[in-house]
């Protein structure tokens, strides 16, 4: 699914960005795709986009089947609170968080140039963690009270019992961004949801085969799962 406007290098001209709970954007793009094709649709979301897709499926319930025959979500942080806390601790804070911040902060500053009243620029420049960033930018720009409110309300996990379209949730249990203890259990999802939680795979890695290995096994397996719903 192509969404999260602003990630392609072309800025979003609206006074907003993207966030992991943006189910409205998912709905918009799926409806546009439906209008432009006579075939049946399958949807796949990865990482933050996967959470948005799973949240959309939970909110839409049976209406989701009007747009897609099935959906797959890969390595999504379905519990944004647990994922956010995890990224703010230990090696994650010193290795991965700075990488994210180097791309997020310039995009946010570009938004500030559009509208200086949108958020506190000085606070943004002091941000060192994703919680700091979401607190000063993502939350206020998209109508959330603060980072904690955003993480709580935007998480797909509480909505998984409402999903009524075939949905695959694939998460490696050694994903450095998504702690294993936060992954959904069978009793936390509807009968339409299939959980696949292999012990290894990292964050959208799933390397297999002899050295130097390859990363084709996961896309092939997910595609095969989706094809059964056509």
Write the layout of secondary structure elements.
Elements: H1 23-36, E1 42-46, H2 48-60, E2 70-74, H3 80-87, H4 90-114, H5 121-126, H6 130-141, H7 147-154, E3 167-170, E4 193-196, H8 217-227
Parallel strand pairs: 1-2, 2-3, 3-4
Helix pairs in contact: 1-2, 6-7
Structural description of this entry:
By secondary structure, the chain is of the alpha/beta class. The protein has two domains: 145 residues, Alpha/Beta hydrolase fold, catalytic domain (Rossmann fold, 3-Layer(aba) Sandwich); 71 residues, no CATH class. Helices cover 42% and strands 8% of the residues. It contains eight helices and four strands. The chain has a four-stranded parallel sheet with strand order 1-2-3-4, with helices on both faces. Helix 2 links the parallel strand 1 and strand 2. Helix 1 crosses helix 2 and helix 6 packs across helix 7. The chain is globular, with a radius of gyration of 18 Å. The model has no long low-confidence stretch (mean pLDDT 94).
Summarize the structure.
The protein is an alpha/beta fold and 230 residues long.
What brief labels describe this structure?
Rossmann fold; 2 domains; 8 helices; globular; AB_hydrolase_4_sf; AB hydrolase-1 domain-containing protein; short-chain carboxylesterase activity; monoacylglycerol lipase activity; AB_hydrolase_1
Please give the CATH architecture of the largest domain.
Answer: 3-Layer(aba) Sandwich
Name the helicity range: 40-55%
Biggest sheet statistics:
4 strands, parallel
What's the mean pLDDT score? Answer: 94
- Listing every helix as H and every strand as E from the N terminus to the C terminus, the arrangement reads HEHEHHHHHEEH
In CATH, the homologous superfamily of the largest domain goes by the name Alpha/Beta hydrolase fold, catalytic domain
Based on secondary structure, the structural category is alpha/beta
What's the tally of helices? Answer: 8
List segments where confidence is low: pLDDT < 50 over at least 5 consecutive residues.
none
Task: Count the beta strands.
Answer: 4
Q: What Rg, in angstroms, do the CA atoms define?
A: 18 Å
The dominant shape is globular
CATH topology (level 3) name of the largest domain: Rossmann fold
- Terminal CA distance: 17 Å
Count of discrete structural domains: 2
Can you identify the CATH class of the largest domain? Alpha Beta
Q: DSSP strand (E) fraction? A: 5-15%
Spatially, the strands of the biggest sheet line up as 1-2-3-4
Protein name: AB hydrolase-1 domain-containing protein
Pfam families: Abhydrolase_1
GO molecular function, one term: short-chain carboxylesterase activity
Family: Belongs to the AB hydrolase superfamily. AB hydrolase 4 family.
């Amino acid at each position: 699914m192509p969404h999260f406007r602003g990630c392609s290098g072309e800025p979003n001209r609206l006074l907003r960005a993207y966030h992991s709970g943006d189910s409205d954007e998912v709905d918009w793009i799926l409806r546009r795709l439906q209008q432009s094709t006579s075939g049946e649709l399958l949807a796949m979301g990865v990482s933050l986009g996967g959470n948005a897709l799973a949240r959309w499926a939970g909110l839409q319930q049976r209406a989701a089947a009007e747009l897609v025959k099935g959906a797959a979500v890969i390595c999504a942080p379905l519990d944004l609170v647990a994922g956010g806390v995890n990224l703010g601790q230990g090696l994650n804070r010193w290795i991965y968080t700075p990488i994210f911040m180097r791309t997020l902060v310039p995009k946010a500053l570009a938004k500030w140039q559009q509208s200086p009243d949108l958020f506190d620029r000085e606070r943004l420049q002091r941000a060192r963690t994703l919680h700091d960033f979401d607190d000063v930018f993502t939350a206020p720009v998209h109508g959330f009270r603060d980072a904690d409110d955003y993480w709580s309300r935007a998480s797909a996990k509480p909505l998984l019992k409402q999903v009524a379209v075939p949905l695959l949730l694939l998460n490696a249990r050694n994903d450095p961004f998504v702690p294993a203890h936060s992954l959904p259990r069978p009793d936390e999802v509807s009968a339409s949801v299939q959980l696949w939680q292999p012990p290894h795979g990292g964050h959208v890695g799933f390397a297999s085969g002899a050295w130097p290995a390859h990363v084709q096994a996961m896309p092939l397996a997910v595609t095969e799962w989706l094809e059964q719903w056509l």
